[in-house]
Write a structure and sequence with these properties.
Layout (H helix, E strand, L loop, with lengths): L9 E4 L3 E4 L4 E6 L2 E4 L5 E3 L5 E4 L2 H9 L3 E4 L3 E4 L11 E11 L3 H10 L6 E6 L2 E6 L8 H14 L1 H4 L3 E7 L4
Antiparallel strand pairs: 1-8, 2-3, 2-6, 3-4, 4-5, 7-8, 9-11, 9-12, 10-11
Length: 174
């Protein structure tokens, strides 16, 4: 944990911290209202905006940014005053297959058949099936994501022909 008193952290059930369909990391304080973890803004919320559960890797990124102090399997301990230094917005790249989320299993089976499950992970984001790097990690650069797209197109040109490199921009607190 950080150098401030751990009693100052805000424990939140892990199920209340997730990713919206547009990639925003949020905490759900009320049934119809969430707060973005990175910029502190509040948004109206309904279940159609749900993207996916937050991963350990994503929580580690928020921890490195000072937004999260610590976490375990049940709780996330939010920092009361994030210590995020002003920086240029960062982009988290991933591959959008443009396939509906109902095709997730088919894409997973393809990766398994091709022996690529140690390099890529299939997820659902909004209504689409997406592909991230190993263990669900983002691609750090556009070039890295593009190389991954090319590898996947060689394996399944018919299924993945419309796959594009996509990104979520993460803006630090000003």
């Amino acid at each position: 944990m950080s150098d401030y008193d751990s009693q100052e952290t805000i424990p939140v059930p892990r199920t209340r911290i997730f990713v919206l369909d547009d990639g925003t990391f949020v905490v759900q304080w009320e049934v119809n209202r969430v707060q973005a973890l990175v910029n502190g803004r509040y948004y109206s919320y309904d279940s159609e905006r749900y993207g996916n559960a937050i991963t350990d890797w994503e929580l580690n990124q928020l921890k490195n940014s000072g937004v999260v102090d610590d976490y375990d399997t049940e709780l996330v301990y939010l920092s009361p005053l994030p210590t995020i230094a002003a920086q240029i917005p960062t982009r988290s790249f991933y591959l959008n297959t443009t396939l509906p989320k109902s095709k997730m299993k088919e894409v997973e089976e393809l990766l398994e058949k091709e022996g690529l499950t140690d390099k890529f992970a299939v997820r659902v984001q909004g209504i689409f099936t997406i592909i991230r790097g190993r263990s669900g990690r983002i691609f750090i650069t556009f070039d890295e994501a593009e190389r991954a797209r090319e590898i996947l197109l060689e394996c399944a040109p018919a299924l993945l022909r419309d796959t594009v490199v996509a990104f979520v921009e993460i803006n630090p607190i000003p």
